[in-house]
Amino acid sequence: MASPPRLIEKVPFKYNSIISARKRIWLASPYFLPDDNSIDLLVAAKQDGLDVRILTTSERSDKKPVHYASYEHYGRLLKGGVEIYEYQPSMTHAKLLLIDDRWATTGSANFDPRSFCHNEELDICSAQPELVQGIKDTFVKGFAQSKIVTYQEWQQRSLIKHRILGNAVDFFQWQL
Hints:
Elements: H1 13-20, E1 24-28, H2 36-47, E2 51-57, H3 64-72, H4 74-79, E3 83-87, E4 96-99, E5 103-107, H5 113-117, E6 123-126, H6 129-144, E7 146-149, H7 151-155, H8 159-171
Parallel strand pairs: 1-2, 2-3
Antiparallel strand pairs: 1-4, 3-7, 4-5, 5-6
Helix pairs in contact: 3-8
């Protein structure tokens, strides 16, 4: 099956960063609620041979129902080869994006439609080598303290928590 096109008009800034990646896309968000376009872009990048990883919170989330909604989005990503890491020591609140080893974004925006289109979020984007390296180091430490989720584990997720509650929360995600 052919990869979906990697160019989309009128997309959030983070989409443009993902589209421009050639080697690596590392993304961290505690409230990870990707829309279909985001999932398509991340899976297409992985299928193009990029290292695509997501660092997010585990069930230690301060908003467990949001975690369950997030978990429901893992399926297509995992099946497409995207690696998803759930941070174990505590709730992670990192909101980071590393593109290749050249570009980094950090700030207040989660990776969800509400942050992209509704909230007044502020992110800083930079190619400054010290910032990029610092964010890369943060990812490396985060991945080392995380549990990687497998597609097989995702398929065995809870009916009530993940499938029913997660989908109900996802339906109302604009209010999250």
